[in-house]
Fold this protein.
Amino acid sequence: EAQVTQNPRYLITVTGKKLTVTCSQNMNHEYMSWYRQDPGLGLRQIYYSMNVEVTDKGDVPEGYKVSRKEKRNFPLILESPSPNQTSLYFCASRASGFYEQYFGPGTRLTVT
Amino acid sequence: AQSVTQLDSQVPVFEEAPVELRCNYSSSVSVYLFWYVQYPNQGLQLLLKYLSGSTLVKGINGFEAEFNKSQTSFHLRKPSVHISDTAEYFCAVSDSRGAQKLVFGQGTRLTINP
């Protein structure tokens, strides 16, 4: 089944404790992206990647890091999480030349 | 840069009634337009998209949208809604030159009452 998977689905952590949210897709898509969803703000893009080793900032990159060492994986790293990063996070992917993005199920992160 | 405004944060309607969810965008370049749906506790799913051609676009689940370039709008419509259409709906826009960034509106929560 074609899908985007994220782990963990739920995470409660404390301020300053480094964490990684994994994202993997099995559709051989070149493009991958991370979004955060906050009430009343819709989804905002954090980082995106056009292909392996090619990443760029979205609209809200502060406090986040990403890497794209393999085509299928695009982890989101929070080196020192803060409470304002409490949010619902979505990973998405699409094929080059196509414009439909496929979304993962989401990761609900709470930073206390 | 692009921006999207969804004019209603919540829309309550009765089952089998028609519905329109409004979306306006701004951009200095030509754009692609999308509507996504998010059912409770799920990720987003594409409803329909406008890339070029006919301004009336039909999507899944009986939804359609009309691209109006002069009014910079992309309103979503359905002639008769069902309880199962209860969800949050997001309008989104991307630059047609590269489509690297997808900019979303704030979302409209559609609630269907029996």
Notes: Chain B touches chain A at residues 4, 6, 9, 32, 34, 36, 42-46, 49, 51, 90, 92, 94, 99-107 (CB under 8 Å). Chain B has a mean pLDDT of 93. The two ends of chain B are 41 Å apart (CA to CA).
